[in-house]
Amino acid sequence: MGQEYKRRRGDRRDGRWIREGHGLQSIMAHLMPNRTDNEVYLHETIDATELLRYLEEKNQNADIKYTIFHCALTALARMVKERPLMNRFIQGRRLYERYDITLSFVAKRRFADGADEALMVLKVKDDDTVNTVAHKIVGDVKQVRKEEHASGGIDQMMDSLAKWPRPIVAFLMWLLRVADFWGFAPAAITDMDPNYTTILASNLGSIKCPAVYHHLNNYGTCSIMVTIGTLHKEEILMPDGTKQIRDVIDIGATLDERIADGFYFARSLRLIRHIFAQPELLEKPIGEESGFEY
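The chain above was modelled as a monomer; its predicted structure follows.
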């Protein structure tokens, strides 16, 4: 979209202004300007049995270990590509649509109390598949885990800024919020900030925790937070009416209700369930239609 769309006055560096939006959305942006006042919570238990079979077969001859998290991020990217309203945000009391699909997550440098965390941002392209997404994630995570502390990017910037006198930090944060409102925040800050991505995801299953509801932030443009819980077994009612013990994963999502309606959110969630049930779709470029009939 970013290559085809000619930017116009009022567009931001990271998104185009939706001038044709519904009047209700425009009014809500003024009546309820804070993203945290418009949070909608979704919880879904997704059957991951077929996905586990897919991963077991794929990892037999793979050069890296593919995980549920790699598949989940790829599925989310495909969902956003097919459901473009999920890639919108409200900032400065206007509705925008991003030019790119970006996913972010936090990686622990060590699985220990007090260990540093690194903020990771992944830009997804139309020709990406689970293979390219997984290799990007594995490579980035390995790199940050070689270092005991933050060594660059947004991590280093925050570490340095935190040492400054409190009045100066408060003034700089005020300036940043003003720039954020008008869409003039520096790219050096926003490009690697998870608060400026399509979806911020947290792999809680990796630390044996269930899915939770993570709050949104008024700062930035991120309209969707997703947490992926621990894999476990649960009795599921199958389409033929029988009950089976299946491998399932709980997913929790927090969304800004102003970017779309509940019907659109529900259909987007159905697509995620479909991808988990048909994991071979993860091998296709996300730019290709899944063929899912809603």
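The chain has a mean pLDDT of 88.
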